[in-house]
From TrEMBL:
The chain crosses the membrane at residues 27-49, 61-79, 103-121, 128-149, 155-182. The keyword Cytoplasm does not apply. Pfam families: PAP2. SUPFAM superfamilies: Acid phosphatase/Vanadium-dependent haloperoxidase. The keyword Membrane applies. This is Undecaprenyl-diphosphatase. Keywords: Membrane, Transmembrane, Transmembrane helix. Residues 58-166 form the Phosphatidic acid phosphatase type 2/haloperoxidase domain. It comes from Brevibacillus ruminantium. The lineage of its organism: Bacteria, Bacillati, Bacillota, Bacilli, Bacillales.
Length: 200
């Protein structure tokens, strides 16, 4: 069996779950469409804990996503295909999506790059973020907008980029300098915390 055939069969196995078990569909839609708001809220909460560790983690997460998107843009020039619902019959399509190159999955890139950035710094709850990323990746197949290969490659690019950002960003002196300048300005408008609290 070729890789393309295996990818197609795996897509059918996952996407057909929504036909057999309709109760999965609302959860799949929520995971595929709305969990990015939860991720955004997480970034805001971590940033406004006002600890340097958490703020550097947020910077690393954003940098990891940018790096991963650059990798994805390059990968998309070597391989491309349209969304499953655009080319396959009888797809369980649960959300609307424009037709373009679905390789790799941008949602999966976003979640894996950021959630692994959280894991590297905040190990206690980091695995919950990684579990969320995994659920989002699977949900994108369940709702019919991505093949498994889109999700797997997106996840690998996200993890690789999170590793690069974790190793490189803290070593860049200008990042620390910019953060210090921001915090000086912030202290003019927000009261200083009486006691520094590190949640890690």
């Amino acid at each position: 069996m070729s890789l393309v055939q295996y990818d197609l069969e795996l897509f059918r196995s996952i996407n057909d779950l929504g036909k057999e078990y309709a109760f999965l569909n609302p959860a799949a839609i929520f995971m595929a469409e709305y969990t990015m708001f939860l991720l955004g809220l997480g970034l805001i909460v971590y940033w406004f804990t006002r600890t340097k560790q958490n703020r550097m983690m947020v910077i690393q997460a954003v940098a990891a996503f940018v790096i991963a998107e650059v990798f994805a843009s390059v990968a998309g020039h070597f391989f491309s295909h349209q969304q499953p619902f655009a080319v396959l019959p009888d797809v369980n399509q649960l959300i609307q999506h424009s037709i373009d190159n679905s390789f790799p999955s941008d949602h999966t890139i976003l979640f894996f790059s950021m959630c692994f950035s959280f894991l590297f710094v905040r190990k206690r709850e980091g695995w919950l973020w990684v579990l969320l990323a995994l659920c989002v990746g699977i949900s994108r197949i369940l709702v019919g907008v991505h093949y498994p290969v889109d999700v797997v490659v997106g996840a690998l690019l996200g993890i690789l980029s999170a590793c690069i950002a974790y190793l490189v960003i803290p070593q860049l002196s200008f990042v620390a300098s910019l953060l210090s300048v921001y915090e000086k300005v912030e202290r003019r408008f927000l009261p200083s915390k009486s006691k520094s609290t590190d949640l890690s």
